[in-house]
Amino acid sequence: MFIPGKIIAIFTFPGIIVHEFAHMIFCKIRKVAVFEVCYFQFDNPQGFVKHERTDNFTTTFLISMGPFLVNTLLCLLICIPAYLPVKFFEIDHLFSYFLVWLGVSIGMHAIPSDEDATNIFEQAKVSVKHFNILAIVSFPIIGLIYLFNALRMIWADLFYGIIIGLGIPSLLFG
Amino acid sequence: MRYKKCEICGKRAEQNKMVIVENTLYCIECFEKEFEEKELLNGKKVIRELDPTVCSNCNHDNGGEELPKLSIYPICLECKKVIDKQVFPDWVKAFIAGTIAIIIIGFIWNLRFFKAYEHIHTANTNYVNGNYENASRLMSLAVIEVPEVEDIKAMAGFFKGIDLLVKDSCTEALFLFEKYKQAIPADVNLKSFIIQARAGSFFDKKNYKGFLDASNQYLALDSTQAQSWAGVASAYSCLYAETKNEEYKTQTYTCLAKAMSLDSTSKQMKEYMNLIEYRIYSKQIIRREQFKKQFPTGWSKI
Fold it and tell me: What residues 70-89 of chain A have any CB closer than 8 A to a CB of chain B?
């Protein structure tokens, strides 16, 4: 089913905000100057972070992959408390469903964008010549990011959010 | 604003308008003239000079005083405030704080479910290990945490029933099994426990015909266990003790022989068979605990 990106953005806006926040926070951690941030907008892209260029591959990798770490972790932390009442004890409660919506919305936006992948790719090409292990490892990751983003049209992002938010708790709690 | 001397033409120029190429300082004019073809810069280290007294964002000249830096860029306080506010605005701070608060509230709000889950998990482990008293106690604690879940109530009732059954309080156990039998999952094999409880309950009420019927039902469920045959033997022995009918005595020994052919070595079976033999010999029907108390090392014909 095709649903315009703007509609998805409205329903999953917390994920977009957290995604950009993750980029921004990794810029701060790696002491990279941030010049402009848009945490949410209806236009494409729905958010962005403009920051100083860096030649340090680890820094680029962390800034680009930041949302993957932060969104995934938050998705899990938000959904775990809701999983037990909803799935294990089968108790319907509005707050639990709110947590599931919030967690899955955040999880849906965990995967870095194609632009993030391109940023890593451009620097990985240089860093790999210096036998940077992280750069070598990053190539398959970049491939997966491109693949995942291509699969967004068949709701790969929603499935990811559900797998993290509900699948992992189901493995933990049965 | 600071000025530096171009190492090529010797002219003084604004520091912000100078470039270092391989440790040589160029003014913009000399740089553009020298490197008109961009390929000439290939492999060379090029650094744009930054005047630490001029704001990189708004070009505010701070005189001779150096400005604080954003990364490597000198930024005036006004611009820093604007950028800080723009890159991390109050509403985003509130949103992130709110999200963290929701996570904490989520865990606190649902803490009782975590506690209940832990009790259920430990109760199940205890049940599997045969510690029925603990299993029952923990499942009851889970019910206190999630009183609205009927399935957990039923499982607590079931565990309590098993605990009572093991302690020979069969009538109470039967009451609990009957009460919760609709809600207890099929895989716990409740039917066999109900038959066992019924048999025990008939024994308690001295209804030995009923005891025999229930024991035979249990045997029909599983005739591969020594316990099943011993149960029928016990029922016949009770009937013999009550009626002195030799037919019951014969049936008792037939069933005992079957039971012994399946298990004649386990402590539990040895004790049970010893009790039955005592019953046949003395024609007295006493409970297992009473028998153990009376004959702590077992009974034997003198």
Answer: 74, 77-78, 80-82, 84-85, 88-89
